[in-house]
Structures are given as C-alpha cells and as structure tokens.
TrEMBL record:
<keyword id="KW-0963">Cytoplasm</keyword>
<dbReference type="GO" id="GO:0019894">
    <property type="term" value="F:kinesin binding"/>
</dbReference>
<dbReference type="InterPro" id="IPR057714">
    <property type="entry name" value="PH_NISCH_C"/>
</dbReference>
<dbReference type="Pfam" id="PF23142">
    <property type="entry name" value="PH_PLEKHM2"/>
</dbReference>
<dbReference type="GO" id="GO:0032418">
    <property type="term" value="P:lysosome localization"/>
</dbReference>
<protein>
    <submittedName>
        <fullName>NISCH protein</fullName>
    </submittedName>
</protein>
<dbReference type="GO" id="GO:0032880">
    <property type="term" value="P:regulation of protein localization"/>
</dbReference>
<feature type="domain" description="PLEKHM2 PH">
    <location>
        <begin position="114"/>
        <end position="178"/>
    </location>
</feature>
<dbReference type="GO" id="GO:0007030">
    <property type="term" value="P:Golgi organization"/>
</dbReference>
<dbReference type="Pfam" id="PF25625">
    <property type="entry name" value="PH_NISCH_C"/>
</dbReference>
<dbReference type="InterPro" id="IPR053015">
    <property type="entry name" value="PH_domain-containing_M2"/>
</dbReference>
<dbReference type="InterPro" id="IPR057288">
    <property type="entry name" value="PH_PLEKHM2"/>
</dbReference>
<dbReference type="GO" id="GO:0010008">
    <property type="term" value="C:endosome membrane"/>
</dbReference>
<feature type="domain" description="Nischarin C-terminal PH">
    <location>
        <begin position="241"/>
        <end position="347"/>
    </location>
</feature>
Length: 348
C-alpha cells in the first residue's frame, strides 16, 4: 500500500473535469476515495500483484487507430504499466475498429452491471513520449500502431506532473544497459551532421525511453502557416504568436429538451492582429517510425479566423475553471475597405 501522503494526492486528483460528461462506470471510479481507490486498482485493474499505483489523472485521450474519436479516460500510472480506463461510449462509437477492441462481453445494455474498457500500455513496451507545444498535450508511443495514445490534458501543470511521475517510475525498470558507443572516425562523425534541419530536443532516459520536446522551428512553421491564412497580410515583417491553447468551441444544440451544448475540440491561436481556430491532428505527427505513408490530413486545418480590429466585445462567464469566453465580432461586409482607407489617408 502507498503512503498516506500518496493516497491523499491520488484522491485529490480523482476529479472528473466539470465540463466533460462520462459514463456511469467512470462516475463510480471518480467517487472512490482513499484506500477504497487503491483497493479498486488492485482488485480490478492491476495485472501484477506487487505493482504500485503511483499517479492518477483524468484526461481526454486519442488513439492512433481512431484519430477522430476523443474520449474521456482515467489514466492510472503504476510501476508496471499505464492504464487507460475508458468511457464505454467510445467502444460503441467505434464499430468499424472491431479488431482493435475485444467486444465479446460488451452486451450489457439490459444489465445493471456497468463495464469499462481498460487499455494497457506496459512500461517495457514504451519507446517514446512526444510533448506538444506549450505542454498542452503529450503522445505516448509503443511498438505498434495499437500502442500510440495522445493525452489531451489542455493543462501544462498536469502534463508536467505526469511526465515527472513517468520518469520516476521508468527509473525503477531493470533494463539491459545500452551497448557502449563505437568510436567513430572523422568522416562518419562530421559527414552526416549537415542536414540543414534542426531536430527536436530529445532527452533519452536511463530506461532508453525518448522524451521529445518541440523546438523553436515548430513555432516558426506554425507562424508561417498562420501568415499564409492571413490574406493580404503576408508581407508583415514579423508575425508573433502570442497564445497557443487547446480549447473547446461551444455549439449550442437547438430544439433539445435541455439547454445542452456540444464541445468541439479546437486549437486557438492568437497573433497581434488575428484570432484563429484550427482543427489540429494531435496523434499523427511526428510520423511514427513504422508509418508507411503520411497522414490523410494536414496537422493544422483552418476552421475560423477573425481580425482583432473587428472584435467588438468579449463576454466572460462567472463560473470557475474552465472559463467560458464569448468573442463578439462586427460583421463587416467588405473587410478590405477599412484597410484601404487607412492606407490612403494616413500614409504608407
């Protein structure tokens, strides 16, 4: 059993984000506290008797095989594996991936027994961890397409905490040491360096798992992409990205019995002149080593873009985190009119 401080920490972390809905089975898990939570882990999830529960986190997750289905999961990190306790609605929504999930015992519609699927990624199978821009998400990669999962924490603190806990657990693994580096001659040492492309920052853990962080070029590439979307403004000498955040766009459902709304995942990018919403592929990039062809869609697809000068007002809700913001823009028919007037009347 873990120490009292660890039990208290895991209990505090066992809270479903208020803006996301989950199934009854996951609500049951979120209601567990203290020792009951640890006993639930050992009795229902743990695969080995002597493994220890070290960290718990609630997060939206994406799988490489189903890149369009974002599902809520309780992520449990132990000394042996990472467990993703999934919302059962994910399996029903994913009928075409019959080979990915074993559905033999999923017929529990008429039963009071609630079942959750648990996806297991053993630490020994872990190869790399890619941390997204500004620690908004991270991707865990195993040895095949079935073993690639992205956790969309949308929170740099949760990402940082999980990565630290994962590194600590990986340090306990007994893996064979890496072979001694072979002494290279002059030509092999300096001949392959001049590729002209800056690689991402890599931290190779003692367990030989790679932790890969984005470099400055990713922000530069993103700024170039944003500049391409800004009609007539690509001549700006410097375009600075002021904010990059993973958010949800709220779409109200009219005609429903209750005042319900659906949340569409979006990447919000703010520059000094524009506000953009992108549909981003969080799971396919960078390409895994076994990928034989590029993904079917680009990493960033523009969903909406508005000029800051057309922003009329910002409405803020009074609820606690997560904060709801409503941006109200003036509906200008001819957007170039004001820009041309400015240039004509106020100089170059």
């Amino acid at each position: 059993y873990p120490s009292e401080s660890l039990v208290q920490k895991i209990t505090e972390d066992n809270q479903i984000p208020v803006h996301l809905r989950v199934s009854v089975s996951l609500q049951y898990v979120a209601g567990l506290k203290g020792r009951a939570l640890v006993e639930f882990f050992h009795g229902n999830i743990a695969e080995v008797e002597n493994e220890e529960l070290r960290h718990l986190m609630w997060s939206s997750v994406l799988f490489y095989k189903t890149p369009n289905v974002e599902v809520m999961a309780c992520v449990l990190l132990s000394t042996k594996a990472i467990y993703f306790l999934l919302d059962d609605s994910f399996v029903r929504a994913d009928e075409h991936q019959s080979d990915f999930w074993n559905k033999e015992n999923l017929d529990c519609e008429n039963s009071s027994f609630h079942l959750s699927c648990c996806f297991v990624l053993k630490l020994n199978d872990l190869q790399s961890v890619n941390v997204g821009l500004f620690d908004q998400y991270f991707r865990i990669t195993g040895h095949s397409a079935d073993h690639i999962v992205t956790c969309l924490t949308r929170d740099s603190y949760n990402t940082h905490t999980f990565i630290q806990q994962l590194m600590a657990v990986l340090s306990l693994l007994a893996r064979t040491p890496s072979p001694e580096p072979v002494d290279k001659d002059f030509y092999s040492e300096f001949g392959s360096k001049n590729t002209g492309k800056m690689e991402n920052y890599e931290l190779i853990h003692s367990s030989r798992v790679k932790f890969i962080y984005p470099n400055e070029e990713e922000i530069g590439d993103l700024a170039f992409l944003v500049a391409e979307k800004m009609d007539g403004l690509t001549h700006l000498p410097s375009l600075n990205i002021l904010l990059y955040v993973l958010a949800f766009q709220v779409n109200h459902i009219e005609g429903s019995a209750q005042n319900t709304s659906s949340l569409q995942p979006k990447t919000l990018i703010l520059t000094s002149s524009d506000l953009f919403l992108f549909d981003e592929d969080y799971i396919s990039y960078p390409l895994p080593e076994f990928a034989k062809e590029p993904p079917k869609r680009d990493k960033y697809q523009l969903a909406d873009g508005r000029r800051i000068r057309d922003l009329d007002r910002v409405l803020m809700g009074y609820q606690t985190y997560p904060q709801a913001l409503t941006f109200v823009f003036d509906d200008v028919q001819n957007q170039d009119l004001m820009q041309n007037l400015t240039l004509d009347h106020f100089g170059e």
